[in-house]
């Protein structure tokens, strides 16, 4: 019986301490377990830095810094062609698909095309995607036949480099897909689009 009273008294004291600390400051959540798991050690890149830290004083009030010259982030692949008509033509002439045309790569390309491209371009690349059919977007050319590209030439004759450049930067109503697809995934989509170009 005494043990139950001790447990009950301990619980009441603990509960009142939590209520008291929570009520003292209206924004407080009360006592917290393992506080160091909530407060990050590293500075928040989106917030101004405190100048009390000697290292951060040299950051001029910013934690997110531009990388030093002649360096690249880990895993970053540089793309040397600018988002211009000249860059588009240069990419078309110079870039070739580095991936082997295997069944596995084509299947992956088909999957990415279906997810990212078919809502506008259609699953068969005929320019009759879902968004075209419900009239949310228009003017999507077909990859087959004599449909003209907006930058000249026929869609069925676009080179791998021109298709990759368009995925990288977007064109007209099409936005860039560089943030959604890795370079390998983009090349797989290019491979699949080139299969669609062969359909008459």
Automatic annotation (TrEMBL):
Designated name of the protein: Mono/diheme cytochrome c family protein
């Amino acid at each position: 019986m005494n043990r139950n009273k001790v447990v009950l008294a301990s619980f009441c004291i603990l509960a009142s301490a939590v209520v008291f600390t929570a009520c003292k400051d209206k924004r407080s959540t009360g006592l917290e377990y393992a506080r160091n798991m909530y407060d990050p050690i590293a500075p928040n890149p989106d917030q101004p830095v405190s100048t009390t830290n000697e290292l951060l004083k040299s950051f001029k009030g910013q934690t997110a810094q531009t990388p030093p010259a002649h360096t690249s982030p880990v895993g970053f692949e540089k793309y040397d062609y600018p988002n211009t008509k000249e860059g588009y033509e240069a990419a078309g002439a110079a870039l070739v698909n580095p991936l082997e045309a295997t069944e596995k790569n084509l299947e992956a390309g088909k999957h990415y095309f279906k997810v990212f491209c078919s809502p506008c371009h259609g699953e068969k690349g005929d320019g009759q995607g879902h968004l075209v059919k419900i009239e949310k977007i228009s003017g999507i050319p077909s990859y087959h036949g004599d449909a003209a590209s907006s930058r000249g030439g026929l869609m069925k004759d676009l080179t791998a480099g021109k298709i990759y450049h368009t995925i990288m930067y977007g064109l007209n109503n099409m936005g860039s897909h560089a943030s959604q697809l890795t370079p390998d995934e983009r090349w797989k989509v290019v491979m699949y689009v080139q299969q669609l170009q062969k359909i008459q």
